[in-house]
Amino acid sequence: GYTHKILTSRAREFKTLNTLNGMSRFISRAESEHDIMEASHAGTSLSIGLGLAISEKLNEGNNYVVSIIGDGSLCEGMALEALNHISVEKDLKFIIVLNNNGYAISKGFGALHNYLESLKSRKNDTFFTTLGYEYIGPVDGHNIESIINTLKEAKKSKKIPIVHLKTEKGHGYLPAKNHVYLMHFSFPFDIETGKTKEEYVVKSYQDVASEVIMDEMRKDDKIITITPSTIYATGLQKCFDTYPERCFDPGMEEQHAMALAAGLALGNYKPIIFYQTTF
């Protein structure tokens, strides 16, 4: 939502982020007329967009609805449920834009990630076209002219079009480009290096928790650790590096992660699932 906030005249408010009564980290109807919904997680845009598009149709309106979703969000259960529904609706002015940079929060993972990375032209697609969509792409997501021309093409489609944009994490800024999660979130940092300023380098709660988990995994080979695309927020990187066969990052799939943990427990293992409660 940060790019959206910048485009809707809130760039100057970023200095109030994470402060009392400051700018929200997420889109918020209370903050701007341009925020049409409340959202604190990904994976919701397709379902909400479909509802808006159906409303527009029933109201005999002429506006297009464009839902933007990232490749990391596309694997979420809610997004897949929406994909199952959207393509069978008729006469909707609805365009899906898939922004694919190969990352969720952590690096991309899984079959859908691998599939999207393999697409080189629209002729290669079998997944979206089989579901009844018109697949358009891949398109250079950093080329404004190409995006405009592609969206014009998408408006002419007789099916619901999926415009596949390929983008690069940290495009134009090496500290973000060269780091797995840097700039997804940030404490005050040095612009040249991207490194957190000294006074903000502290030992956090998650650092303490991850050290305990690491110690317990060393003593008990029945412990398995799961974090859904939040290695960065849990301090579990060392655990993943040391015990890769007992650590799982299934992507932004919290429901799946919880059920996976239940299955492991039924199999007499001791799963630890670690991520933010807001997710």
UniProtKB/TrEMBL annotation:
Its cofactor is Mg(2+). Signal peptide: none annotated. The keyword Transferase applies. Keywords: Magnesium, Thiamine pyrophosphate, Transferase. One of its GO terms (molecular function) is 1-deoxy-D-xylulose-5-phosphate synthase activity. The keyword Magnesium applies. GO terms for biological process: terpenoid biosynthetic process. Homodimer. This is Transketolase-like pyrimidine-binding domain-containing protein. It comes from marine sediment metagenome.
